Amino acid sequence: MAREKGRGISGPLLTVALVAVMVAAQLLSFAAADLSRGYGSGSPVQALSEGMKHYFGNLHSHTAYSDGTGTPAQGYAWARDTAGFDFYAVTDHSEDLTEEEWSDTGLQADAFDQPGRFVALRGFEWTHPVHGHFCVLGTGIFTDVNETPDLGSFYAWIDAEDAIAQFNHPARFETHFDGFSYRREVADNVCLYETGNGPSGNNTGVHLERYPLALDQGWRLAPADNQDNHSLNAFSHRTVVVSPGLSREEILDAIRERRVYSSDDPNLRVVFKQGEHWMGSVAYACGERVRFDVAAEDDENIARLELITAGGAVAAKKEFAAGEDSRVVAWSPEVAVDESAYMYLKVTERDENGDDVLGRGEQVAVTSPIWLQRAGTNWYLAEGCTQGEFETWVLVQNPGDAPARVALTFMTENGPVDGPTASIPARTRLTWNAGDYVDSFHVSTRVESDRPVVAERAVYWNGRTGGHDSIGVTSPAPTW
Predict the structure, then answer these.
(1) Which residues contact 213 (CB under 8 A, 6 or more apart)?
(2) In 320-474, where do the E strands start and end?
(3) Contact yes or no for 273/300 (Cβ under 8 A)
(4) Is 136's pLDDT higher than 50?
(5) What are phi and psi of 159, to 5 degrees?
(6) What pLDDT, on a 0 to 100 scale, did the predictor assign at position 17?
(7) Strand 314-319 with 164-167, pairing
(8) CB–CB of 370/272 below 8 Å?
(9) Mean pLDDT across the stretch 418-440?
(10) Which of 95, 28, 31 is nearest to 58 (CA)?
(11) What is the pLDDT of residues 24-34, one digit of tens each?
(12) Model confidence at 335: pLDDT above 90
């Protein structure tokens, strides 16, 4: 159905005239920094990257099709040729968009998209005064608050469209996003959280301080540091995607994998890994101590590196003295892991080039976490059946001294189905009948827990005259 352009409900724009002037004055230096991204000789970043590349861009911008200026074509040309972005998303407020404008944005994105040089993305911003704002990428159609008027209908829409969604400027109101209440059905869709937005970069802490709150709810989110620009001006902030190549498919795939970090600096390169696991990954079957590999490289000196975990607590830290040459650094911290957890890297550097228009003296980068699953916290159970005369039961025992939070997901030929969630008391076993949740000849089960548990699967048939039982495995594999 064609949409008429409306006035919208996006709220008043924040006008920062002085900042805009300073941005314009610094724009060329930012672009020059972005366009020169070679690794130094013997770079630890290059060694740890193992062929991956760092791409710097922006996933949140507006044109005159909503409350910005200019056309999408002007935005893409400026982003590529002046700002020096590797990728750029136009995300106009959807309640202001007509079908013709949405179509034109897509045509212009296709015209400017050049694999290997520049990725042009089309998206939109779902804008609700109570429930918050989301940027949405990777869809052929769009929705707005008239069609999807609440979080439930919006979440159902992005799930059906297999969209990528981002929590925008999350500190604007504490009630936005229902306080980050976790929704399993869109856990694979909501991939991004703006730790920086517009002039409020990571170094202000405005949006960054709520990042652990969202992670602690169970979301697996990569941080973004976006412009949210309504004109052709840019701050020094960048969203950085780590990808094997520069194409739409590769950039969007890397975002889905959460292989992303946010940076107040326009050319800071960061690698954060645990063994073979990149930032954004889940590391299964971890032991009691876990080692990470960190590398960072910039043309300004780095002041400190920190591993951050639940609640924003610092799990490990390395500092570099003023006057020390710390433009290229490497670090391999080892931390104790008592239960399933997450760790992300925070890099603070001295703003020796004066990139930050707010003049705070430091710039901050934050990586996507690596989620750590202790051995025995995830279990995989194969070869179940709930049709015909078959019964499949999932049995989970908590041998520990504290309650374990457990969630079951059933895998069927039609895709995953959310199963029960429960808190299993210490030294207790709970049992579920898979047939209460799925009706399938082919069903396997994933058990996720925040503490070590033991999971097994029992199958019965022919009125329970036959049956067998099998313990699960603690990590998936293509061969056995």
Answers:
(1) 180
(2) 328-331, 334-336, 341-350, 362-367, 370-374, 378-384, 391-398, 404-412, 415-424, 428-433, 443-449, 454-461, 466-471
(3) no
(4) yes
(5) -65, -45
(6) 33
(7) unpaired
(8) yes
(9) 94
(10) 31
(11) 333 333 333 33
(12) yes
